[in-house]
Amino acid sequence: MTYRATGSRLRRLFPSVAGLAVVTLLTAGLAPASAGTSRADYQDPSLPVQQRVDDLMSRMSLRDKIGQMVQIERDAAGPAEVADNRIGSVLSGGGSTPESNTPEAWADMYDRYQRAALDTRLGIPLLYGVDAVHGHNNLRGATVFPHNIGLGAADDPKLVQRIGAATAEEVAATGIDWTFSPCVCVARDDRWGRTYEAFGETPELPKKMTREITGYQGKQLGGDPTSIMATAKHYVGDGGTTGGQDQGNTQLSERELRKIHLKPFRKAVKRDVASVMVSYSSWNGAKMHAQKYLVQDVLKRELGFDGIVISDYDALHQLDGDDSTLTASEVRRSVNAGLDMIMLSSDHAKFLRLLRQEVEAGNIPMRRIDDATSRILTKKFEMGLFEHPFAQRDLLSTVGSDEHRALARQAVRESQTLLENDGVLPLSPEKDEVFVAGSNADDIGNQSGGWTISWQGSSGDITEGTTILEGIRQVSNSKVTYDERGDGVDGSYDAAVAVVGEKPYAEYEGDRPNGVRISEQDLNTIAKLRSAGIPVAVVTVSGRPVDVSEHVDDWNALLASWLPGTQGGGVADVLFGKHNPTGKLPVSWMRSYDQQPINKGDGKDPLYPYGYGLSYRN
Ligand code: GLC
User: What is the number of the ligand 1 atom nearest to the C-alpha of 313?
Assistant: First the structure.
């Protein structure tokens, strides 16, 4: 490299003015290479990370540093533009996939960005992030695990750690270094569209499930080839907004905020989570992305978080009230509040210009930029990206592997929560002739929910896996008939299974201020099954409790399946007694939505309380 030669040439020619030479080089953004080595300190993996960070920082211009603070949507900037702007990170938002959505195409896309980043003056590798929130869920054919609310019902932290590790293998195989997961939110109002992304309504469940961070990262970040960065999100109080409004306002005293919503982040920091994503929501009317006290003083100083604080997607645009534009004030307030990396759908050139202007005007101190850059570089060194920058293609065979699907099926089994049963369950795989119906019985898109292949998810045959009906056909050795609306059912069957519930959604698209009920179509289907005079077991596939109070007494069983993902066979395992149901409610199941918010210990009277769940050997 030029500076190395310059450095050693200078030292050779002017040993007596070597100090002057070093100052000259430093001023020019260059620093001498390690004595007697053929590379710069920051390129020497045998040196301590802090020394490598310091050396690299000494070579970086302001442009280099602020470039590191940008994470841009892949759709907005190709490899060359990312490299030209010295951008430090790229993301695929929900559904932002390469043209052909295959593991190889992801790995090729990742390597193209990485190669461009390495081909710059300082050759700083980039970090690539995705929302792998229940498996590598953007990728067709990947194993899709139950969403968090089902894992909260399973209440098996070791299993969740294994899920994190399996997900990390499939993610690392495609090159991706970073997942924006786990959501350690505490869902206090089930009208919230992101209730299913929570492990439950108390801090205890997300605290326990922070073990997923260790699954993703390994015992030490970058300690093995499958290690990917985890993200605790969304900091703080996203699940506590008034009325369950997504990106709304969390009106709590600081004491209540700490008691309910902060604890899982404290635990995540103790587990060395690599990044924390700030919430779109507000605390007592003030947007979290400008909350210097909670970000700088509480998260970074009091909790000792030393990783990357990243914004949510275009969240800065919301700070001044006009979501469509990015202003200097929004950049200043968020970066000064302690945000280290800014996630953008586009606008990166404008962001870089505004940030540079604010620094040069003295509105953002250089020590803030250095803190952000140092945190970002530290994670890149810890991840080993300077030594192993490309996709781990030897892991490609793990994507959707039998082993991972078996793990997912176990998670589905353990998440099933039995709420009513007059003895119709378990069904006999040998004897019972079963009629299956309902809008969610044979739809892998519906049983996977949001954040699956696309941001919102969608109904239909969207990826490889087993629907609940297919699982029933696999497990039963007797007659199984299916009709979505129940047409053709008669009294000759021993039982009927009606699989009903919600269609996929994500974020604010899932807010239901008026609650969630079973559709008219599915209610008519259940009525048709009941009119045949046979017992009916209802299975709810949903991201939260569904209002069943006025109907449940007419049913012979009720099983909450949550959002099981691609391995619907796990539901059949419980229906046919291959697995005794052990799931316990991670959220209170309301009598009606006008009880919301309803939570453990609030004195209200739910239909089924938090922690409730039956088994067959009750
Ligand atoms: C979304 C979500 C966040 C996600 C990010 C990137 O708006 O709020 O959970 O990680 O954008 O997709």
Answer: 11
